[in-house]
Amino acid sequence: MRPDQITRQTELFGLLGDALEKSSDADMINRFFDGNGVDAFCSIFNIREEDMPFFLTQIKTKPIRALFVRSSHMAWCLEYLDRKDAVTEATGYLDAVIITDGALQGIAAAPSALCAKLGVKERCVAVLGNSPRAKAYALAAVLSGAGTLILADEHLEGLADTAQMLKRHAFEGEIRLERCAPGATTDLSGAEVVINTLQPGETIQPEYPNGCDVIDL
Asked: Which among 56, 66, 130, 214 is most buried, taking Cβ atoms within 10 Å?
């Protein structure tokens, strides 16, 4: 859909970030809408940090259904939300803001959608990394009914804190902590799903068990 094809029935979305004119993300979202017969259009919003309070106040009054949020703007959005879903509240991660009745709700849409698609219920899920995004995927797996978790990162102390957070969300399964760093042996045996949030070159990439579903983010 082109901007001149927008009608009163078209659902409007926004992509929030910086230097978005150099990115194809909005085009990709619009191709998804077109390919699935969805009457919707996504515009780009290049917003600087100092302009975020004004932008997020004004967007509440506009006919925008939701914003897709780049990681560069995630922390800024968190300050101005009216509501958060369970994953965003616990981990500080969001990738979208839903706008309803003049209120902003932060949600972790991708982690929840991915866990639902993979069918992680009662499966062993390994999450590599311990950033807010990694924690969001781990918690989404818990809320989707995962049976066992393997958490792997360079710093075991941080993983222990994440494990405690997951326990507070009534996870009763086993949580195994593994160090993922040069010189360390990272044991992912038994993992049926591996979600890797580590950046290339950030740390050593462990070997994946044969036959597991691997999502390399």
From this structure: 130
